[in-house]
Amino acid sequence: MVGAMHDGREAPDQAPGVSDPQPRATAGEGTPADLGLLQVIRDDGSIDPETDPHAPPAVVLRAYREIKRLRLIDARMILQQRQGRVGFYGACTGQEATPVATALTLEPEDWVFPALRESSIMLARGFPLTTYLAQVYGNAGDILKGRQMPSHMSGRSVNQVSWSSCIGTQIPQAVGAAWAAKHRGDRAISVGFLGDGATSEPDFHNAMNFAGVFRVPCVMICQNNHWAISVPSSRQTASNTSQAPARLAVCERADFTPAWVRPVFTTSTGLPARRAAARLRRKRTPSSKPST
Length: 292
Ligand SMILES: Cc1ncc(C[n+]2csc(CCOP(=O)(O)OP(=O)(O)O)c2C)c(N)n1
Ligand SMILES: [Mg+2]
Description:
The protein is mainly alpha-helical. Helix content is about 30%, strand content about 5%.
C-alpha cells in the first residue's frame, strides 16, 4: 500500500469510521521485484525450483482436469457459435489457468466479478455444467430466464456476478462488494477481472483509486493478452510496454489471503509527479518514459 500522497502528506490508513481487521503490507512488499514475471514451468517444461509452489499432487491433478475440461467446453461452444447455434460465446483459450487457479484458491464466501474470459470460475467452484450451458443456449434450463446475453452467466450459489458487455464495469463493482464485506466484518474477499483493454476505461482508474483510498479486500487480476481486439497494448498505454503486465494492474498478495489492492498509478513520493510537471512546463510535452 502506498504510504504517502503526491504532496508528501501521509495517506490515511483507512476510511473514516471503518475498522481495519486485516494486516497491512509490511515495508518492502510491493517493491518492483513483486511485479516481474513469475514463471513456475520453464520453457523446457521443467519446474523452476525457485518458484515451485509445491502444490499437493491432488490439487495439481484437479487443476489439470479443470483446465482440460474448460478447453474442451470452449472448443465445442465456439464450434456451436460458428454454426449459428448460439448467439455469442466468450472463450478463454490459452488463458485457462487463470480462472481455474483462481477458483481453486477461493473460499466459498468469496465473490467473483469476471470479465469476458473468466465466467467458467463458477464451474470449478461447483456450479452444474448443464445449467451453465443452458444459459448460453437460452433454453428452458436457463436460470436467468433469457434476461442476459448468451455467455453472461451468474450464480447466487457460487457468489458470481455476471460480467457486463461494457468493458470495465465489473471492476468498481468488485471494489464495492469488497468494501461492503469490510463494513460487515465478513471474511469474504472479492476478485475482479479485467483484460488489458479495460485499463483504458475510466472505471478501472476509479476502481483502483477507490480501492486504495478505502483499503478494500479486493484482488484485481488483469489478463494481459496484449490486445484489445485489434489494438495492441502499446496503443493502450504510454507505459513502457515491456513492463505492461506489471504497470497495467497489480494484484498484491497473490496467495489469496485477504488482499489489499495497491493502486499502481500513485507513487510513493511526490518526486516523479513534480519532475513530470516541471518537464511539461519546460518542454510542453510529456516524457516518453513513464514517471516512476
Ligand atoms: C465500453 C466498451 N467499449 C468498447 C467495447 C468493444 N469491445 C469489446 S471487447 C473489446 C476489447 C477488450 O479487450 P481486453 O479488455 O484486453 O479483453 P480481451 O478480449 O483481450 O480478453 C472492446 C473494445 C465494449 N464492449 N465496451
Ligand atoms: Mg486483451
